[in-house]
């Protein structure tokens, strides 16, 4: 499965962004997926996860602000982010959960005034 994240950008605190992950491959619908992020000097972390059946889970720091969703017909996973904070600044990646060894290109999210 190849994964391509997009939709990042520069946004002011309190702003919103929607990230999109396009996946190739025939087995996307049965794979649990996740959005990860890596801030400068920090380890990559899983911030939101969605099972093949649509159950979701979030890290406490984004709970209530981020929403993960998937469209199996389009092989796509989304991350809707609202009320963004400077500490959300990071490169965001999508991958399976648990992650595949190979990572696609991430998308930069910068929250700054």
What do you see in this structure?
With 113 residues, this protein is mainly beta. Helix content is 0%, strand content 47%. It has no helices and ten strands. The chain has strands at residues 3-6, 9-11, 17-23, 33-38, 45-50, 56-58, 66-71, 76-81, 90-96, 107-111. The strands form two sheets. It has a six-stranded mixed β-sheet, with no helix packed on it. It is globular, with a radius of gyration of 13 Å.
Layout: helices, strands, pairs:
Blueprint: E1 3-6, E2 9-11, E3 17-23, E4 33-38, E5 45-50, E6 56-58, E7 66-71, E8 76-81, E9 90-96, E10 107-111
Cα Rg: 13 Å
Number of helices: 0
Q: What structural class do the secondary elements suggest? A: mainly beta
> What is the averaged pLDDT score?
95
Strand content: over 45%
The low-confidence parts are none
Gross morphology is: globular
N/C terminus separation: 37 Å
Helix fraction, binned, reads under 10%
Widest sheet: strand ordering:
2-10-9-4-5-6
Describe this structure in a few short sentences.
The chain is mainly beta and 113 residues long. 0% of the residues lie in helices and 47% in strands.
Short descriptors:
113 residues; mainly beta; six-stranded mixed sheet; four-stranded antiparallel sheet; 10 strands; 0% helix
